[in-house]
Amino acid sequence: AGGQWRSHAKADEKEVQDWDIETYRTWFGDVKGGNGPERGLGIVPSTLFWSNLEPETIRDLWWRDLVNDFIEIPASELPEQAKAGVSFSTICINVPKHLQYLKTTFQAEGGRLVKTKISTVDESKNLLKIIDEIFRKEELGPIDVFVNATGLGARDLVGDMDVFPVQGQTILVKGEAKCAKTLDENRYVIPRPGSGTTILGGTRDRLDGPASSWSTEVGDATTKAILAGCKDLASELLNGHGEFEVLSVQCGLRPARKGGPRVELEQVGEEFDVVHAYGHAGAG
Q: What is the pLDDT of residue 95?
C-alpha cells in the first residue's frame, strides 16, 4: 500500500476533519521529534493536480490553513492536463515499517496477539461471549471493551450491508521519489521514506457484486496504464531506457462504507461494550 497524509474529508464532515487534523499534527510531531525513521514516517513535499477542478475551488479546501507550506500553483506552472494544483508539506508512510512499529509498540506495552477462527453465524451477543471465553482461557480476560475493526468483515460480523470494497491496484518500483504527486484520484506517486522504493497508483474501482466476485487479481492492462501515467510524475525514477524498475504489482480491496466510516459505541446486551471502527476506505 501507498501511504500519505491527504484528507478525503468533505466540508461538512467535521468529525472526519478532526481525525485528519490530529493525524497530521501527530505525525508531523513524530518526525520533528526525531522518531520518523523508526516509525516509517517522513516529511515530503506533496503536489496535487486536478484536471476537473476550477482554480477558485482551491480556496474552499478546508485543510489549506492546516498544512505547512501550502501554495496554489500558478496556471503557468501546471502540466498540460491540469486545470488546478496545490503544493504543501505532507507525511509519507513506509507502510510495512509503520505497521511493524505499531505491532512492536503494542506488544511492548503488554499487548498479546491471539489468532483463532470464529463463526459469524452466531448473533453478535453470543459471538462476543465466545470471544470473551477465548481470551479468558488465554488469561487475557475479562474484556472491558471490544473494538470492531473488521473492515469488509463487518458485513458478516454485524450485518452491515453498507460496507463495500473498492479495488485498488498499485506498483512498487525501485527508487525513492523526491516528492509525492497526485493527478486527480487515480494517478499518484508516493515514496516510502527510508526504503529506497516508491508506490505508483492506481485504481479505485467500486465492487458492488457478491463477495464471491470480489477480485484481487492483477490486471496487465492496468499495470501498463499506471506505469505510463506516472512517468511524468516521477521522471527521476526512470532508468536509461525511460522505464520504471518494477519490484512488485499488487491488488487489494479497500473497506469502504456508504455514508462514511462507522465509529461509534454500541452496548450489546447488558454485558458488552463495542466500539465500531470500520469503513474508512482508502483513508486507512
A: 96
